[in-house]
Amino acid sequence: MKWKCAGRTRWKERAFQSKKCVEEVAVLRGRILRASGGFYDVQADGGTIYRCRARGRMRKNGEGLFVGDMVEFVSLDGTQGVLEKTVDRRTLLKRPAIANVEQVIIVCSPQEPPLSLQLLNRLLVLAESRRLQPVICLNKNDLPGSTEAQKLLKEVFCAAAYPLVFTSALDGRGLQELRVLLRGRISVLAGPSGAGKSSLLNRLLPGANLRTGKVSGKLQRGRHITRQVELLPLDGGGLVADTPGFSQLDLDDVDRYALPSLFPEFITVSRHCRFTGCGHHEEPDCAVKQAVHDSCLPAVRYEHYLVFLKEVAMRGGVR
Ligand SMILES: Nc1nc2c(ncn2[C@@H]2O[C@H](COP(=O)(O)OP(=O)(O)OP(=O)(O)O)[C@@H](O)[C@H]2O)c(=O)[nH]1
Ligand SMILES: [Mg+2]
Ligand SMILES: [Zn+2]
What we know:
Layout (H helix, E strand, L loop, with lengths): L5 H15 L6 E10 L2 E6 L4 E6 L1 H5 L9 E6 L4 E8 L4 E2 L4 E2 L3 E6 L8 H13 L3 E6 L7 H12 L6 E3 L8 H8 L3 E5 L6 H8 L26 E3 L5 E3 L22 H6 L17 H7 L5 H16 L5
Parallel strand pairs: 3-5, 8-9, 8-11, 9-10, 11-13
Antiparallel strand pairs: 1-2, 1-4, 2-3, 4-5, 6-7, 12-13
Helix pairs in contact: 3-9
Guanosine-5'-triphosphate (GTP) binds next to helix 6.
């Protein structure tokens, strides 16, 4: 096979050499932190980062390689390597495409952009459906309206018992709490554009230098600044990925019959519903509806549950 570019020839030769002596060379393990233009930056167990290419066989078989994947690779010269295979992929998120995520930090703000409980509930449902631990992070607590927003979040999410953290990337409040929640885990930051995800990471990781952007004045919307996905190593262990913000998000792979179980506060109460597998909608003697009526469960969570139920039911809902 002819190779047009000398650089690629060298890669090919070295990859071939490494294949020949793969039995003698120690196979290393590491995690893909970023992927770009056919190269993968892999952090080995010891912490060194190797720039790798995938073995031709992997590319031919179309074996997907994702940021977050654990891989086995052969070192070429201590800085470059050849990926041999992925190991133990436990989970794979589609958007953003990251493997093995454990936790999602949902970043929102009291204003710029304004707090949307429906978007927050939607993200919580998506996190639950992928079995990720959700954390709610209200950022921009230096802005007016943050005390009211904090109170609202405490009320709405008390029954679900989601961890809540109140931060400001501007004055640094709450960052220590956030650091503790991130430690030792693989997390992604998600949430609307402009809520301050990249700004928070720039505060937590001063070397990260992630691009941030102003929220547009009139629409109070972010400008979708972050585009690429990468995992950033945290001091003291753990990895965190910034993700692009979004304005719309559909529940396209949420199962209609699983939806009630994605609202954790409904689960215990639903034991008292008349029907097992109650959809908490038109069924008689529904304990969840009764609890909402008696103000024992937050009305806004139930209201959004019905919105999502309609959405997934209209789509056919079962998968
Ligand atoms: N007042 C205040 N402004 C903040 C805070 N955090 C971020 N900002 C500002 O909010 C704007 C958006 O911040 P980004 O960090 O780019 O937001 P993002 O969530 O990463 O946005 P996308 O990448 O578009 O999803 C910037 O002008 C930041 O300076 C904060 O805690 N307080
Ligand atoms: Mg960003
Ligand atoms: Zn019910």
